[in-house]
Records
---
Amino acid sequence: MKWPRPNNMMLQVAIRFISLIIFAFSIYLFLAGHNNPGGGFIGGLMTASSLLVLYLAFDMKTIKDVIRLNFTVFIGIGLLFAVGTGIISMLFGYQFLKHFFDTFQLPIFGEVELTTALLFDLGVYLVVVGAALTIILNIAEDEK
Amino acid sequence: MSIFHAMILAPLIYALFVPFFYRSFNRRLHTGWFVIAVPLILFIYLLQYIPKVLKGNTLYETVSWIPSLGIDFTVAIDGFSLLFGLLITGMGALVVLYSIYYLSKEKEEALHNFYVYLLLFMGAMLGVVFSDHLLVLYVFWELTSIASFLLIAYWYERKASRKGALKALLITVTGGFFMLAGIILLAMMGDSYSIRELIAQKSVLMTHPYFIPSMVLLLIGAFTKSAQFPFSIWLPDAMEAPTPVSAYLHSATMVKAGIYLVARFSPLFGGTGLWFWLVSVVGLITLLYGSWTAIKQTDLKALLAYSTVSQLGLVMSLLGVGSLAFYYEEGPLFTIFATALFAAIFHLFNHSVFKGSLFMVVGIIDLGTGTRDIRRISGLLQLMPVTFTVAVISGFSMAGLPPFGGFLSKEMFFQSMVDVSDLQEFGLGQWGVLFPVFAWIASVFTFVYSMILIFKTFTGKFQPQKLNRPVHEMPFGMLVSPVLLAFLVIAVFFFPNILSKWILQPSLYSIIPAAKQTRIGDIQIWHGLTPAFLMTVGVILVGFTLYKMLDKWLRIYRVFPQKLTLNGLYDWSLSTYEAQSRKITNRYMTGSLRHYLLYILSFLILTVTIALIRNGRVQLAMENFHAIGVLDVVIFIGIVLAALTILITNNRITAILALSVVGYLVVMLFVIFRAPDLALTQMVVETVTTVLFLLCFYHLPKLGKRMEPLKFKWTNGIIAVLTGFLVTIFTILAYNHKRFMPITSFFENSYELAGGKNIVNTILVDFRGFDTMLEISVLVIAGLGVYSLIRLKLRERDTDEV
Amino acid sequence: MNNLVVLPIVIPLLTGMLLILFKQYIQLQRTASFLALVGTTLVHCLLLFEIKQSGVQAVQMGSWPAPFGITLATDMFSALLLLTSNVVALICLLFAFHSLSAEIEETYFYSLFLFLITGVNGSFITGDLFNLYVFFEVLLIASYVLVSIGGKKKQLREAMKYVVINVLSSSLFLFAIAYLYSITGTLNLAHLSVRVAQTGQDALITAVSLLLLIVLSIKAGLFLFFWLPGSYSAPPTVIAAVFAALLTKVGIYGIIRMFSLIFYHETHVTHLFIGILAALTMILGGLGASGYGDIKKILTYNVVIGAGFILAGLAAFSPEALNGSIFYLIHDMISKALVFLIGGIVIHLTGTTKLEDMSGLIRTHPALGWMFFITILALAGIPPLSGFIGKVLVTEGTFVSGYYWLGAIGLLASIMILYSLLKIFMNAFWGETILSVEEEKGTTKGLMLPVALLTTLTIVIGIFAQVLVPYVDLATYSLLNPEVYIEAVFSGNPIP
């Protein structure tokens, strides 16, 4: 398939930079989700687009060599997180998907609220990243 | 589980073992020898019940089947069902014996199937006659149809067999469904499925509005099964079955199931005008039609088939006339009509005997000469003396001649028809005279075809050149059954009252107990010069003349149109049904997605519009709405323009971009309405999908000029606009129709409840985390889908994949 | 609270996910998916007994009290469907082992299959309208992939229509949910029932219910079945069989649930309408089945007739009729799967779908032929097989409710079923044998066991219907008495 394949150094440098920013922003969105706009779904999609930008700017193969990640595994792990939090609460005798939260006094961070919902959201995040990239990369690679 | 239940189920269970016998022993011993034990033992077993039901009493045995639904397998033995039981098992034994010689164990490759079906039938038929519970009766009733279907198509390679089988099944099962509807109505009226309990409630049921419908529905079931006009057409085609089957199912037993049912229900429905008219008139028409049509047949089995149709009609008409006995209840008229009932039972018995033996005779001729065509067979007298003797005895009995059993019941038949003609009630009036007239004419025809059957085949000059093989008498074993039946035919004439006392009278009493007080059923051979006797004499004289002059008048049949027959009608309606079904279905199932969407949306528009109009005045109150600002209007216009661009453009990239413009403008709306999470999500999703679209774009062909006719576009446009309009109206209505506080207020405490300030997020991961879990699964499945679609492209092998 | 209720969803979902990670290990995939379905089947048996003992089982997801969280609730009706559908799926899985090519098996077939079951089970279990929508999406998206798996031209063409029509219906579903939420302010089915009963089912609510009916009708193949014959004849046999047995049933379940739990106040409008649609469906389906000489077409139109017949029982809305519908629903799942599997084998053996090109298979495959014959009788409702009791009860129910025409059309449809299927039997199995075993295009190796199992089920269910009656009675009871369901969902908590 004809990826738009510009051999433009400037663009590639810029894209690297942009990608990093988007990536960082996506992580923020994910973490902030519980109290501010954001969350696993948006975070995941953002992360996916940050990687997508890289694929757009560079050759498919180059990126593949650099980022040796199998995104299908992301999906599996993510789903395990999401379903796992549900099952664990069930194993403790609560209803499926019962979440718990509490505030903890941590060094450096100070008072932090930790919640099992974040684990669930992490699952969502991973799945979204994995699935979005699987879909897009598969379509992109289909050169037949 | 009583012995009696076991007896009914025994043939069915035994059938399971037949293939085993066949596989293990058939080379040495004909499988039939293993089977014959079943009817024989059952016959002997049933004999012991004769004294037990002699006084018209009934024995019951009940086993629960589905007690919660009130379905019990209740076996009821009374004189009438016992008569049938004896016929079924007795004829069954003789037919199996006969079949052992008829079906060669070497030539037939699926002999076990034959006996499996036969046993299946035997069990089913016993079930029909001994069941008191109507649903159970229906179960067995359908089972007989199926067994008959399988037996007719025993030689399934033959097209005619298949066609005949299908016809028989379609007609009888359809009739069965009518009957089922009737049964359900009956059960609804009387709150019981038990025949006897229903009969006990007769006086109440008679005034029920379901009384007539259930009667008609039941009769349709009975008429189809007993091959009454115009449902009779399946019976001649059923002759494709091996001859033992014709002798057994299609003359002696199964076709009498309808008769059985009518007789069984006579106590309930009898005495009403409609029942009388329906049963007797249909019977008479069938009688006349069958006998008239039988004469022109050239195939011996077809002749016998039509003769069976006509004889069944005779019995039916007797049941119709006899049903009046339930109206009079006592007195001379009661005696007259109860005698008609007796005649029906008597003739039913006689018919089974002589017709069974005649079928066997025809089977012997068929096997001996290789043909059943009357035009090719003649002068078999010297070659097959025993067969001839049997044919004469049974044939004369059928024609109603003395000294054979058929004479007696035929006389009684005439007498009943004469009696009914005197009656003025039930709107009979002058019409009553038609009963004896019809009966007499039909009997003349019966006489003629009986003569054809006997004399065309056995007398005259033997013409071996017309046959393909040397002809000889059949082996002893094959003759046993017909000879025994022929003896019975004579015995019945000379000792009718033995039969009457032990079998026929108990049968009558179980249908109409009041008959016990009378002397009905004392059969006299000589009554004096009664009208009935004179009619018989007339039949013989006219019949003989007609037979002699057959060549002269047979061409009358040609006057009747050849195409316009009931069979033609059946074939025509079946093929038309099929062709029209295809045509109708093809008309709307075009395979075009556009059409399907149009149907669905039009249906939606129609339904919802009507539903909303029912709502009454459509109030589009806007006061609850958010004030519309300038920005809203701009965004709205933008969305409309972008959407129109998608429709109009010929360039895919433009279309994709326009689509994403719509998406981003919606993002703007979310921003305006202060829904940052939605806006953010929508934006990212929009971006990713646009990229995805652009990627796919490379795979798609150029968007050419759309060559749809203008008319298409107009229809599409109208439907689209209407749908949009309707959805808008509906939305406004629903918005203005808030009846309750929404549950959302609960979520506003999200921080205390779930430890999160962002309500949207807490809903997503906590309150409704379950939805989210599944939504990401959807995403995963979509991912897998894309992967599998792209990776797995099987070669075009449309058929060799399971 | 009873977490058992979650397991029918979690077990297949989790197994399906794990199997994504073991793409290449076919044997493992087979074993795991088999065990997963055995597991769910056992769970359903347990559920069945618990419900019989102690009534409707409900659990609140995340322990948020109803109606705020998502409630899962199984009454006897859903438990019966769960059990039947999983047994059928399990047997079809056995068929898949021997019938699918390794390529398909390696392309996440088992994961997709399990996700499909997740969607089906979830739809039967959920007590929340939006969650129902989500489960529909799960099963639909899995079905989109399964319809097109293999990527043959015909499949893609039919998949396209299937997807577009279902996307349309999904969006209509969302509209309906939104309207209903706007009016009642809740999504919980039990709560909806309470609130609709409180405010009275006025014309607008009825209009929403009809919109919902249209959505579910598309899924159920009730009247709006145009997509069905094409897309059910495209995929490999085992997938078509599962679709025929389960997918339309989910739509039917939805209709029955909605119109017994929530929208039961205006039966003279809604249920009559359903009855009319059911009648039209039976007639059109019957015509379609009778008109063609192509096995796949005949079978797919038979699916349509079945949907009409089951919903005729709902239309009558009496205890007898609902009993009949449930009996028939159970029967239909089993025998539709069966008839599709046998049809698939016949096509496999002869290499054609055209009846005129096949003949005399009974000589070489007597067992297959007779099992098919039994299936035909079962489908036509001929006693004493599985279809009989359902047919009698539905017919009786329609008569009791005064819908004589509906009962009559139901019986007429039985004749059409009989005729259309006998055509297959007489053409494919009877007649001169034209193919010797060596000339056949495929074998029946390994395929007969699942077919035999299903055939046994149709016979056993017919003859030993008594065993089922108490359960079916309970199911009908909970359908006709919404308060039973509502009580279990709110379990004594105040209803806002």
---
Amino acid sequence: MNPSDPSFATEFREKIRKLETEVGKVIVGQDKVLEEVIIAIVAGGHVLLEGVPGLGKTMLVRSLASALDLSFQRIQFTPDLMPADLLGTNILVEEAGSHPRFEFSPGPVFCNLLLGDEINRATPKTQSALLEAMQEHSVTIGGKTRPLERPFFVLATQNPLEMEGTYPLPEAQLDRFFFKLRVGYPDRTAFEEILRRTTEPNTTTIQSAFNGTELNELGDFAKAVPVPPEIRSRAADLVMATHPETSSASASVKKFVRYGASPRAGQALLLASKIRALLQGRFHVASEDLLAFALPALRHRVLLNFEAQADGIDADVLISEICEEKSKAWTSI
Amino acid sequence: MNSSQDFQTALRSATRRQHLRLAARIARSALPMASVVAVAGMVLAMVSPQLFADSARVIILLLALALLALVSFPLKRRLSPSQAAKALDHDLQLPDSALAWVQLPNSGKWRDSLQAETLERLRAASSPPLSSEKKTLTFAGILILTLLLGGWIWIPSVPRVAAPATETANLTALDEVLEDWTTFVEENPNPAGEEIKQAAEALELALQDREAKRSDLLVRIATVEDRIEANLSSMDSLQSLLPALAEALSAAVDPSRSPSSPPPTTSEALEKMAAQLPADFTANNASELEELARQMSEAGHTALAEALRELAIASDGKQAQSAIDKLAQTLSDAEALADAKQMMELAQMQLAAAKEGTSGDAKGGLSLLPKLSELGNPGIGAGSDPDFPESTAVRNLDAAPLLAPINSASQSTGEARVQVLPAAEGLQESPARAPSNTAATEGPLSEEAIIPENLPVVHRATVRRYFEAIRPKIETP
């Protein structure tokens, strides 16, 4: 797939649709979440899925791994989980006729698709063990840096922070997630379908839509989608609007936000927008793409202050306000 | 037509729609305010035309022009290519396709694909209707035209509104003039004045009758005018004969009188004649008196002619005394009427103006004319100065115009201040005060006169204009 040739856009769309179809065989009623997860994966980003237990988060990730024909590892984060359990460690190997030696035993992080289940149940020390892997796609153990196989994705799930026995993720790690998606309850129709599928004999098998190499190609192709200067400016505008210290910040942002979104938010916005544009049959990024991904790309990167927490203000509310305001401003001539 | 031309056409169309939309938006915002101001201006102009005539005109004109400028301003606005593209995207609900077309580099396969995609969207999309914008603009146009053309009928200077207003003002002023007139005739009784007074009373009754036809008023005004005209011509002819009469009367009792001696006035001649009348009086210049009697008779002064003939043929002092008494009585009546000459001349003007106002062709109101009492008939009517020196019939007939400079004492009394400047053609002497000084004090004086007066608000502007009208004009050298 040649990134300079837009004629591959149709093939791009077909592959993505096929992936959605395959995962959709198992996952019901989470179409939007599924699409956003796929977009994040194509963009090479990690996804944090938040939702109460039982909504199919883990199943979604397992299905994706199957459909993508990627090596998959699952880690159940618990409070006693240690970084070595995650990354791997050197173990002493004794063989006959030779001196004992240390040999590296890779942890579950050495895979293409890592499911970090209930990531916020681990301690911050263990959570932070993933920082290097997520950003540099490498792991340093015992002074030796080992690269991870490409593609590498972390799809973490977490329970809402209010639940017992959870540790909030550090901001640095949150920022490394491309999207933070909120998995909600399915509607009634989808719920009935879930009941049917899970309580009757299930013969559904997920077929591979494409492999890791093709996934990398899809990502490279999507990056070639052109962005008009004004749309790029609007992406920056949207991110800057979350910064309370800027003059263009709204009164709500100034009142409730402690730190605004980082540049990674802008990157995520534009990359995701490019993929969405292709999926919508366009050859350029539009404002509606930016607005479509404002919530998943910004909500975990906007750090609210104590006043917001005390007032029960959610980042989604502030971001929605910003989007509404910007949408009006962008359409005015 | 290639794809670029299609796109440019769509851009131009979007630009026009954007202009129309902006104009409609401005019109929509401005119309309620403009309507309220316009209606308020019209109501004020109707309630008090004299006060708000000019302001209503200015408000309506400015309002209409401002509205026109506001609405037409966006039509002149130039949109940048990006703005036009945004307008196109907005109109056709395109996902920033036109913007991307305009902003992305003009080469490469992605650009070609983008153009193909955008053209496909352009062809599939239909322009949104602009019915609401068109309605708004049509409404704005109607309002502007109404303000500029139709709204003009509310302006008091327009004949449809102005004529009745001016007519009312004129008739009110005429009413005041007739009151002055009646007062004068009552104070200076004579047959001719009595006739005029009766005609004036008939006119006043007609004026008070609001139901009276306009033609009736015109007839009555014409009647009064005829009477005044007859009296004025009679007075003119009498005045031309009076010097000869005085000369003839002096010569009748004093044949030795030198022709180079200063001519006496008629009253002086009559007094001297009565004092020196001998018992065996016979007129020395009977033929001259006969000739004068003939001229008087031809001029319509039959009473005077009759008295002169009696004097010419008198054979003794008794008959002569009887003729002299008749002469004095007749002259006294004529002189009393002559006192009203200036008033009659002015009344002629006022009646002419009233007639124009009544016929609906008035250009200005009677109220602009100076009143009788301010023009040499002191003591008559409102606004006169009670301390003004009384004139006599003889002095008014024979002497130069009376000049009465205002002093501090006279300024402190009366409703209005009157000042007659000693003009060059009067006493042949320089004015007591320079015109510039007079003009400087005239303004404050007129202000002083108006402010304490309990004038109706409606008339205040008229009074002010009256004072401005009589203010001496300073001619710059």
---
Amino acid sequence: MHPILKLVAQRVALGILLLFAASILIFAGTSILPGDVAQQILGQSATPEALENLRRELGLNEPPVSRYFSWLGGVLQGDLGTALTNGRDIAESLGSRLSNTLFLAFWAAVISVPLAIFLGLLAVRYKDRWPDKLISAVTLTTISIPEFMIGYILVYWVSIQLGWFPSVAILNDSMSLGQKLNAIAIPVMVLTLVVLAHMMRMTRAAILNVMQSAYIETAELKGMPMLKIIRKHAFPNAIAPIVNVVMINLAYLVVGVVVVEVVFAYPGMGQYLVDHVAKRDIPVVQACGLIFAAVYIGLNLVADIVSILANPRLRHPK
Amino acid sequence: MRIPVAALIGLFFTSLFFLMAIFAPLIAPYGMAEVVGDVWEPPSDQFMLGTDNIGRDLLSRMIYGGQTTIFIATAATALSFITGSVLGFFAAVSGGWIDQAISRFVDLIMSIPSLIFALVVLSVMPTTVTILVVLMGLLDSTRVFRLARAVAVDITVMDYVEAARLRGEKTAWIIFREILPNALSPLVAEMGLRFIFAVLFVSTLSFLGLGVQPPQADWGGIVKENKEGINYGIAAALYPAYAIAVLCISINLVADWVLNRTTSLKGGRG
């Protein structure tokens, strides 16, 4: 077998193993903690009958290991259980929310990825001059403010003071794509600002790393213009680290979505998760936690595989 | 030794925030939960930042809120540093299967985003300050662990560690007397970044209603309480954002300076 296929297969197997371990951790996090979960959910004033009913419903009377396997078995067949609070099927409620969340994350990615790479290149081109300093000052500021606060600052200035876009992002099926985009304009801006900063800084570092190589110095010494050096020599070698940076930030984006959805009352996974944490609805929390972990692990896996594939030393073994 | 201007500005604001947190009851013009005026009064001589959603003085809430936020972040950072670095050094010194077991477990925890993991745990735990500190500290100690282990692995191969081993010192001696003093500077620079992360994290949890519980003030909670005001053009919810930004940027400036100073001490080697 080609060594690169073997490496990729190993990485995928490792990812799947990691996902299983993560599911154990999520399950353990909600089950094996000290104290009676049923008591925590219902509060101190609960009657013994209500406690007993809830324990039976959650299967708390069974040993944790068998509970875990029946939960995992259900998840593998697409059955995420039913919500404690309203008795609805979780997989059903999650379907549309997951696609809403991906819709939001998709547009944020479409805007932020090219912009981050462009700004990263610009910062390298004008290293230590004012464009570089301006870009790094702005990104340092956006890194230093939590997502939800950037959200409210934008709502205050863009939506209320200037009146450009709506301050809440409510979606429904009858909206056209244009209306939907108008509704999510500010959340997308927030997410873009948040990941842009990290992505741009990491892109800048990755390109600068390449720029310090000997072949760049050679190109410089033979009098090649700076932008051409970046385009022809630095960029091809920086693709692997940049793709890695992008993937890591997309993973980060998926988490940033949680908070941003709450700010804008956006009907996505994040809001669903936070709502049900407050209501102590454990089956929903487990299901959402598992999906977020799966997306996160998946994107990190893609980043790993891309950097394996982009490495010419691995592609053409001696 | 000359301190660069940026670091001086950073030091000034950082100490200002910490002094404000320590002396909050002396500085704050009103009590933390004291209703003193109307709902969302504009800034005036009496209330410098105006009042909040139920008529409490916003400046006092901000000062007390800063105290809570900074206290929780400091405690969580301290916990994460103690756990993370001791475990990291221990893993590096022990090597073998102990190192493998701890490192793989840390990888596993890091494979789940911290916020998601915290939400999962908070769904069954009561939200008290102690639980918040322990949860944030332990989740963040995974990052410290990675750094501490990476630094310590370089140090454990040094001759003086070998010498200490040969003269029969115990693991604890090697960790605290040989490795810790040499690993301190990168860890201190990292501490600034971890503290910022803790401030952002506790604010986020409070904003989601899963962190510090009212009537206790904290910066994330102030945003949550006053967010409705934004729609009427009332800026009350924005002050915590500015405060957090100034605090985090100043700490960043100090951390950058510490990092640069320590790398130049080693002859410029990153």
---
Amino acid sequence: MPVRSAYLDYQAGTPVLPEVFEAMRPFFMADFGNPSSLHQRGLTAREALAQARQQVATAIHAEMPDDIIFTSCGTESANLAIKGVAHANQRRGNHIVVTQIEHPSVLNSVEFLEKQGFTCTRVPVDSQGFVDPEAVRAVLTDKTILICVHHANHDIGTVEPIAEIGRIAAEKGIPLFVDAVASGGWLPIDVQAMGANLLSLSPHRFYGPKGVGILYRSRRARLLGIQHGGVQENGRRAGTENVPAIVGAGLACEIAARELPMRAAHVARLQKKLWDGLRQNVPYLCLSGPDPGPGRLPTNLNISTEFIEGEGQLLRCDFNGISVASGSSCVSKSLKISHVLAAIGLDHALAQGNLILSLGKDNTDEEIDYMIETFPKIVSVLREMSPMWDAFQKGVIQSVLAPRPTPA
Amino acid sequence: MSESHSLYNATVMDHFMNPKNVGDVEDADGVGEVGAAACGDIMKISLKIKDGRIEQARFKAFGCGSAIASSSMATELIKGRTIEEALQFKNQEVVDALGGLPPVKIHCSVLAEEAIKAALEDYLKRHPEKAPQANKA
């Protein structure tokens, strides 16, 4: 009898496609040349980079391949975008605008810059994670040199109104950086339509390899490199290029753009099935972020189970062959709940009962069925152990999600 | 399939997956509850005390793997102790008995100690005459 399992953490990483792996393979041992070398071996590698650059540019509707910079990961792309633009523009101004629920690679980069004399405004979001473009406009000053708004949120899946924010940014002549790490490969990316001057992607989220990141930068956005040395990536990012990973990234982008409609439809169907199944079978369960639909990343479900804690759920899922993630404080090394859940005003006890599920193109109905069958049992066992559940059943405390009317 | 790994050692995992003494003591002699859901950790300990010894100890917990394992182990460790011995209970005993906890999880064992102490204090508040004497016979 096959052991049942469900992999529901694809946003943390996806397997490399077989054709991507094959495309990468020659560059490890046969075509191992350094793209900076001027001999045949080097030129072969250089040509491979150029092709990858073109593939990425085409996939995201960039004007030119040279608008693409390869880094080591999505986090480095965010660091380069933010610190690179800040330093290039510091004579013009020192104010940066972000949303409260940006990824830590954005928020921590900005915090670092604040210690160096830059200032930052963190625009709040509503209870579903949406940022209001007018709220962004309201905080722009003549010292603002960068706006950072993510395309879709890694935690709660909210799809932000990028095109409107892009129009505001263009009107004010302020560069807009769009972190598309969570959305790349799952929502269409068109940097022209978005009005994005900078945009980051992480290929290992869409069946490319780890060890490579992408930063799109339109020539209109001035940027200084933050890693110095040689003149790779047009002087924007020194260091010998990870040729195999870049080759893989290029092909993964090309395939992702082509297959996106099918992949997105597949995960959206399973997302709906999974959410319907869980909420029908687990009482006192809530979803954070927008309802599944156009306002939400089709891969992501962020659920909180009342009266029990998240890491305990995660461990029991793992024991049953189900891989998930959690935003509870017990899971983070800093022992703080997810800043995203805090920003949307989620009740702290519910934030502690948090699980993040993310789907991929390889998920099957069988995996979804298995999760729907198994999770309610896990919840039952943990609730039996929980003093909160006990107190709730005795009427000592109320449910935050479904407060009982006071008895007559 | 490659071998399986776990976040915690085998003892901690066992006390998490198959915790001992889950529940509430009926007609408990002492009950202590510490922590808060908003912090991610609540532990409730209830005790049955007979002839100056802890005859039964049960726990309920809202918390992570370490929290549940610490509570389970704590109730195992204090069973059979006298009040005086139980008042000496230290979180390090839980950590040692579990074979170690990740540094960031040590506070779970501290909470277990506090829950035990709270249950004992509750008992002594109800029965001040049972407090251990300064000089033993």
